[in-house]
Amino acid sequence: MSEKNSILLKNGRLLDPGAGREGRYDILVEEGRIKKVASEISSPGVATLDVADCWVMPGAIDLHVHLREPGFEYKETILSGARAAVAGGFTSIACMANTSPVNDNSSVTRFILEQALAAPARVLPVAAISREMRGETLVEMGDLVEAGAVAFSDDGKTVPNSKLLRHALEYASLFGRPLLCHCQDNALFADGVVHEGLVSAAHGLRGIPCLAEEIDIARTIMLAEYLGVPVHICHLSTRGGVELVRAAKLRGVRVSAEVTPHHLFLDERAVADLSYSEDLDQRYRPAQLVYNTNTKMSPPLRSAADVEAVRQGLADGTIDAVATDHAPHEATEKAVEYDLAPFGVIGLETALSLVLHLVDEGLLSPLQMVERLSLNPAHILNLDDRGTLEPGMAADITVIDPDAEWVVDPEKFYSRARNTPFAGWRLKGRVVKTLVSGRVVFPFDG
Ligand code: DOR
Ligand code: ZN
Ligand code: ZN
């Protein structure tokens, strides 16, 4: 007879930077929590999972996803997004507030948490900073924290009013909740659709300069520095942004930052399919489109030099975390002229394999990979029972086959959406099991 949520994982290669462990360990889970980690454990009566030849890590935590419920369930629901998450190895996902209605009051936060009860991943609601994300009036932060908001963000938009942003930073820090900042200067961003550079010039698409992002990152860092409070910068995409964060950290500013897989693997040339198609299976070529609208997101894909800079930033720890900015849109919404397509691409089901690619390339060590995907995100969100597999912590565990090769086929995604820029990519390394609270939540039953 096996106890509820008790399981013994045997023979895996544990990657747990938080506990300083890397190597072959057995892991005993009891009642949803880590009970014991040792080189050899036997526990008669407890179900055993042999994970030989697999990598075992604390469950990946995504700081930045868009589940479209309430309001846009045709794009994604909390359930479909959470299924995509665990299929991609994410056990906790922080969901942004730009739903309809906006998550700017405790009844929406409670609704999300109620829907999440049926979801296989832990869903962590991020509340808006301002009412209806209009940048005018601060939300009732205390109410939202009480209802379960883990962080605050007007993601999708910046908070243009620096006084409001100042007060948001002050209150959020009193409540011990981070502010996750989408940085863009609206006037400079204007009606741009791609990075201002090679492709905007050659193809006549309106450009978004790096400066639009960097000016706002500078402002955000200055406010946090002045107030002595923490702040988190979303989806860093430019070399200048990396330099601003690096310099701020050196000065002791409490700033953290994330980068998305798409900004690590794609540059502006992907917009016009200029260099990414040679290797791809013909089946996945977007034959009917000149521009691939699944390369349109905010911030946009930048220059090759920017990609190199965010990679270096991730490697040297300037950038703390990889977060997907999973932004589902329905196929017909993206099947339009580039100008008209909505910003956003999905990422939950490809992120982990792409980060494994960085390990293969030697950019990150396996332990650094786990830091960027689990330990650091747990710290940023103050999740003190996650990010490592020390005894007593939640048994949220991701098991990876590092050698499994696969081709990205959007039709096979658990997400309701298909808008990935990585269709047809051959990737190595795949999630084989995901556990939340000691329960195997992926693969799905039946
Ligand atoms: O590309 C993006 N999509 N960037 C954002 O900031 C918002 C997001 C969305 O909600 O679709
Ligand atoms: Zn954003
Ligand atoms: Zn976002």
Task: Summarize this structure as a short list of keywords or feature phrases.
446 residues; alpha/beta; TIM Barrel; eight-stranded mixed beta sheet; four-stranded parallel beta sheet; 29% helix; 21% strand; binds zinc ion
Describe what this molecule looks like in 3D:
With 446 residues, the protein is of the alpha/beta class. It has a single domain (58-389), classed as TIM Barrel (Alpha-Beta Barrel). Helices cover 29% and strands 21% of the residues. It is built from 13 helices and 18 strands. The protein has helices at residues 78-87, 106-116, 141-147, 162-174, 186-189, 198-203, 210-227, 239-251, 261-265, 304-316, 331-334, 351-361, 366-380, and strands spanning 7-16, 21-30, 33-38, 48-50, 55-58, 60-65, 90-95, 122-127, 151-152, 180-181, 194-195, 207-208, 231-233, 255-259, 321-322, 397-407, 426-436, 439-442. Strands 1, 2, 3, 4, 5, 16, 17 and 18 form an eight-stranded mixed β-sheet that branches. Helix 2 packs parallel to helix 3 and helix 8 packs parallel to helix 10 (304-316). The longest helix is centred in the middle third of the chain and has 18 residues, at 210-227. The chain starts with 6 loop residues before the first strand and ends with a strand. The structure holds (4S)-2,6-dioxohexahydropyrimidine-4-carboxylic acid and zinc ion (2 copies). (4S)-2,6-dioxohexahydropyrimidine-4-carboxylic acid binds at residues 66, 98, 155-156, 182, 297-298, 327, 343-344.
If helices are DSSP runs of H or I spanning 4 or more residues, what is the number of helices? 13
**β content, as a range?**
15-25%
Counted up, domains total 1
- The total strand number stands at 18
**Uncertain segments:** none
Spatial separation of the terminal alpha carbons: 23 Å
Biggest sheet statistics: 8 strands, mixed
